[in-house]
């Protein structure tokens, strides 16, 4: 799956824990003309109105979908705290995402660099599918403030999410590159541009 100069682009895996600025950094890569595959956005499309996974999800989890696609609250209530149900959902979603990612790579096979935006890259074993790994990071207090500012977020929910994610320090230790997102946006953008320059030249 990984690329090299002979058979495709260099694949940079972009990841980071919740609230670390991953989506912002992904946008910076896109602004520089680097093709970005957003795994979360792909899942939302496939689970939205008319999405390719709706019928299968409804079959396995009756009552979890409606005219607008997956009813997130209902599906979440089914799979939350039920590892077996979550595994069944992942067995539906993950192969579809992988197929979409392969199609994305095929479309951009002549690009020197592509980015895979994968939230749980380490946690789900996706590190084997990329050539290099970039982790975005910020101090814990900055992360906490960002996440708790989101609608519907609570201390309890944040704690539950973090419990499912590899600690930030461990991600940074495993990364090829780390970008600090606690600095002004302009500085982060310069770091992204410098990394692109390094990787494509």
UniProtKB/TrEMBL annotation:
It is an enzyme of class 2 (transferase). Its EC number is 2.7.1.24. Gene3D superfamilies: P-loop containing nucleotide triphosphate hydrolases. Catalyzes the phosphorylation of the 3'-hydroxyl group of dephosphocoenzyme A to form coenzyme A. ATP binds at residues 19-24. Keywords: ATP-binding, Coenzyme A biosynthesis, Cytoplasm, Kinase, Nucleotide-binding, Transferase. InterPro entries: Depp_CoAkinase (IPR001977), P-loop_NTPase (IPR027417). It is found in: Cytoplasm. GO terms for molecular function: ATP binding; dephospho-CoA kinase activity. CDD domains: DPCK. Belongs to the CoaE family. This is Dephospho-CoA kinase. It catalyses: 3'-dephospho-CoA + ATP = ADP + CoA + H(+). It comes from the Bacteria. Pfam families: CoaE. It comes from Alteraurantiacibacter aestuarii. One of its GO terms (biological process) is coenzyme A biosynthetic process. Its main location: cytoplasm. Pathway: Cofactor biosynthesis; coenzyme A biosynthesis; CoA from (R)-pantothenate: step 5/5. GO terms for cellular component: cytoplasm.
